[in-house]
Design a protein that fits this description.
The chain is mainly beta. The protein is built from no helices and ten strands. The two termini are about 20 Å apart.
Length: about 130
């Protein structure tokens, strides 16, 4: 596993904010797996389940990005600060694009929300 983001600080108000990880070149690989740790957070929106939502996106040119279909979206909407660990997520599909990245959307329940993220990713050759 390679570090994708480390100590990635997210902050927002009641309007959702979007943050993007660095892109990863797939090379001759066509699959990916990752781990995400939400180390601590405060004020996330717990009423709608939209406190922190992550998705995997793919691109061929690094300019136009689309969500990877059938990839499991992950979310953290617990209102208490704590460690959230998402076990290794395997795309379980072939990704034909040249680049991938993680997209994080964070939303506060009232005035402000913060989160500290870590994410590891590994690309591999699926058969």
């Amino acid at each position: 596993m390679s570090k994708l983001v480390e100590n990635f600080f997210l902050k927002c108000g009641t309007t959702p904010e979007t943050f993007l990880s660095p892109s990863v070149a797939m090379g001759d690989h066509n699959g990916a797996m990752f781990e995400v740790w939400l180390v601590s957070h405060t004020g996330l929106d717990t009423t709608t389940g939209e406190g922190l939502v992550g998705t995997l996106e793919a691109s061929n040119d690094g300019l136009y990005w689309t969500p990877v279909p059938t990839f499991p979206t992950f979310a953290a909407d617990d209102g208490t600060p704590q460690l959230h660990y998402l076990p290794v997520q395997d795309t379980d599909i072939v990704i034909p694009q040249a680049y991938i990245r993680l997209k994080f959307v964070i939303k506060a329940e009232s005035a402000a929300a913060t989160a500290l993220l870590h994410a590891d990713i590994r690309t591999y050759r699926a058969s």
